[in-house]
Amino acid sequence: MNTYQKTAHEFHEQFMSHWESKGCFHNKCITLLDLCDVTLQKMKDQVLEKGFESLNDEIRFFKEVKPKILSVKFACRTLMEYEFERVINQEIDVAELQQHYLNNMQEKFNRFRDFRYYVSSSSSNRDEQYFTLAYLKDDYILRLIPEVENGFSTGYDVLLGYSLAMDFTKEYFEEEIPERKQVVYPELQWTGNKTDLVELLSALHRTSVFNNGENDFKRFVLAFSQIVNFEVKDVYRTVSAIKNRKNDNKSLLSRMLVAFQEMIMDAHK
């Protein structure tokens, strides 16, 4: 058995236990950050003392094991900052804030395009170049990424950690935030008559304010009738009756215009 397998297994069990627990999210992240630091230090001591069993063992560690622990660390750090900013600024657009944090994480990974393409291709022919210490002894990447530890990082294990952390963060946003933002909209029920509704929809359709007017009128009426829970039959017969109407003073659009003008007058009082 390699020197780090048991430690990795223990980390996974403790991570799942803490992450799925209820309670203060801030405290949960603090606990997980401490767990990551303790686990990484323990693994570092094991690796420096006993080394790896083989080249494949070393590759597996820096490609599969360490990046997963780093991803938890990076994701928790990001989510703590995100939650703090979201709480202190209640009026901020949550979707934009989420995208801001995802973009920041993506930027760290995107600067290294060759590696990004390599990871997305699920290839393994350059694993020795990216995930062994000897190959990257003097690589410039060691100087560009602050989380890289000389002697315990290939540099690319950290980049892969950022990539996995972004997936972790996306999943959190998708599962957690919609619950907070969920809004129950009232059911709409048309309480006017059929003629009023067809008149309104005829005007909307004629002014091309939906899909630039590129829609079939009957389907247009059907779509709205479903929204307002009012079945409209004999659409064209109703349109014909509206056209043949002699007195337009009591039409819906006339009444709407009067109501609108009254609103404008009230605003200037």
Record the SSE blueprint.
Elements: H1 5-19, H2 25-50, H3 55-88, H4 94-110, H5 113-120, H6 127-130, H7 141-144, H8 156-181, H9 194-206, H10 217-227, H11 235-243, H12 252-267
Walkthrough of the structure:
The protein is mainly alpha-helical and 269 residues long. It has 2 domains: 5-181, no CATH class; 194-267, no CATH class. Helix content is 68%, strand content 0%. It contains 12 helices and no strands. Helix 1 (5-19) packs antiparallel against helix 2 (25-50) and helix 9 packs across helix 10 (217-227). Residues 177-183 have low confidence and may be disordered.
Count of DSSP strands = 0
Query: What's the pLDDT, averaged over the residues?
Result: 84
Q: What is the rounded distance between the termini?
A: 84 Å
Structural class: mainly alpha
Short description:
Helix content is 68%, strand content 0%. It has 269 residues and is mainly α.
List keywords for this structure.
single chain; 269 residues; mainly alpha; 2 domains; 12 helices; 0% strand; elongated
